[in-house]
Every structure is written in structure tokens, then in C-alpha cells.
Amino acid sequence: ELPPSEFMQVADSTWLVLSVVSNGREPSGCQATGVTKIARSVIAPLAEHHVSVLMLSTYQTDFILVRERDLPVVIHTLAGEFDIYKEESGERVPVTCDDASNGFLKPKPAASPTLHPVQSPQTRFCVLTVAPDTLPAIATMLIDVLFYSHSPPREAGAGSQDLDSITFFAFSLIEGYISIVMDAETQKRFPSDLLLTSSTGELWRMVRIGGQPLGFDECGIVAQIAEPLAAADISAYYISTFNFDHALVPEDGIDEVIQLLQQRQDSGR
Q1: How confident is the model at residue 31 (pLDDT cuts 50, 70, 90)?
Q2: pLDDT above 90 for 125
Q3: Residue 74's pLDDT is what?
Q4: HSE on the CB side for 256, CA within 13 Å?
Q5: CB neighbours of 110 closer than 8 A, spacing ≥ 6?
Q6: Number of other CB atoms surrounding residue 136 within 10 Å
Q7: Are 110 and 77 in contact (CB under 8 A)?
Q8: With contact defined as beta carbons under 8 Å apart, do 167 and 150 qualify?
Q9: How much is the average pLDDT of 71-94?
Q10: Three-class DSSP labels, the chain
Q11: Is 153:167 a contact under the CB 8 Å cutoff?
């Protein structure tokens, strides 16, 4: 329904959503646990089979987006470890490899993925949710933050690493569940009694991946971050965008995360 515009760019691929549940149960939604729980079993195998993914963590669960044309490879890759279902008329229908055999091509051996630079701004972030019936109470503030509050980015010089602060605000509304990521200073502008967070109320730090726009074609970007963190049992709240990927980790673990990722960079050279 959006009118064509010279200011809007649309990727030429159609994407499908993979929702990963444990033992057939949806997550409880009481804690933002992060993407690393499923990294080894879903993200890493897809990267090995040249499947590019977009990752979207929400307060309630995580979603992996894959291009529709990659679906046969996705099913063949994951069928050995997962029961796979498709949704038809609100019902879950089992999917087998045979259902996706048409057009399946055995992937070529994967080349070593590009290791993108990672940076960590000093900004502290909150991961929040809002009860849907209270959304109207913060709608005006939400619109102001989303569209009007942020000044245009400063022109940074070549090689500038000015990451003392970063403008980042993410809002998602999926099947009635709302997730918001905002910096701690922006949170102060909202009524505190309407923003719900985990019982521990932790703050998060960001690791930003990429030195130039990443696009949507390269595979292995999410795995670059998720695999080493999964091995160390560190949660990450992960959001892919066209320009950069972003992993939020608990603030008290940021030093360990940077060290792990630096080791990964050094070993990949």
C-alpha cells in the first residue's frame, strides 16, 4: 500500500519467517533470552549451505528470515535436526524434504566467510515490551522518537570511530506482541510504569557488525557473532538491518564478548 518513492528502496527478494520453538512450545515471553540458543543448530548450518538470513530478535522470541527461493535448501539442511511445519489456514502442517525437492540444488562447498569488523559504542540500551492496550498512552512519544527526535547524522571523516554514542531505536509489532529497543536516556522520556522489562531489568551493550553496508546477499554474518557467543553460553539480542547487524549483550559481559570476537577475528586472518 505504500506509494512508490525515490526515497524508498525495496529488496527484490521475498522473505519467509522461520520461528523456532522448543519441544513444540512457544517461549514464555517473560525474558529476552536471545539468539544464541539456536545459533549452532539453525544459523550455522544455513551459513554453511550459502543461505543468507536476516535475524530479528523480539522480547518474546527470535525469528529467522530466509529468502523464499532458498526454502528447498533450508528444508534439506534442517530436516535432520528439526520437525518442520508450514502454516496453512492457521494450522501447522508437517513438511518433509520431498515437499521441497523440486528445484533443490546441492550447495557448493562454502568459501571462507568474510569476517566483518565489529565495534562497540558506549551507549547503554534497554530491551522492553509494552502491553498492547497501553500502546495508545505512549503513541505520541513513540512517533516523536521514531520520526522527529533524531537529528541528521553528523558527517564523519574517513575512518572515524566516534562511537561514544549511537542512535538506535527498534520497534516491532508481531502478532500483537510489542518489542522495543531504546537507549537508556530515551527510556527516561517514557512513563516508567508502562514499559515492561525482565525481572532483572538489565542494561545491554551493543556490538555493531560491518564497516560498510552489508546488504542481504552475504551469508555467515549472523553466524560470525552468534557461534562464538553460543559456545560461551552468552545471550545476544540480534537485529539485522541493511547497513549493519547489531547484537545486544548484557552490559556486565561486554568485555568478554569483545575479547571472544577479537579472538575470532585474529584466528580468521
Answers
A1: very low
A2: yes
A3: 93
A4: 14
A5: 47, 48, 49, 50, 219, 220
A6: 9
A7: no
A8: yes
A9: 90
A10: CCCCCCCCCCCCCCEEEEECCECCECCCCCCCCCHHHHHHHHHHHHHHCCCCEEEEECCCCEEEEEEHHHHHHHHHHHCCCCCEEEEECCEEEEECHHHHCCCCCCCCCCCCCCCCCEECCCCEEEEEECCHHHHHHHHHHHHHHHHHCCCCCCCCCCCCCCCCCCCCCEEEEECCEEEEEEEHHHHCCCCCCCCECCCCCCCEEEEEECCCCCCCCCCCHHHHHHHHHHHCCCCCEEEECCCCEEEEEEHHHHHHHHHHHHHHHHHHC
A11: yes
| pLDDT over threshold 80, residue 255 | yes
Supply the mean pLDDT for the chain.
81
Phi-psi region of 145 (alpha: psi -120 to 50; beta: other; left: phi over 0): alpha
Higher-confidence residue of 224 and 121: namely 121
**Angle at 73 (CA atoms; ends 67, 77), nearest 5 degrees:** 120
Burial of 130 (0-12, 13-18, 19+ CB in 10 A): buried
Contact 40, 82 (CB under 8 A): no
Residue written as cell 533450508?
A: 74
Range of 121-135, 189-203, 215-229 with top mean pLDDT: 121-135
Are the C-beta atoms of 184 and 140 separated by less than 8 Å? no
- Cell numbers placing 127: 530491551
The residue behind cell 525481572 is 199
Distance separating alpha carbons of residues 154 and 24, to the nearest angstrom? 47
Can you tell me the distance from the alpha carbon of 23 to that of 166, in angstroms, rounded to the nearest whole number?
38
What integer pLDDT is reported at residue 229 of this predicted model? 84
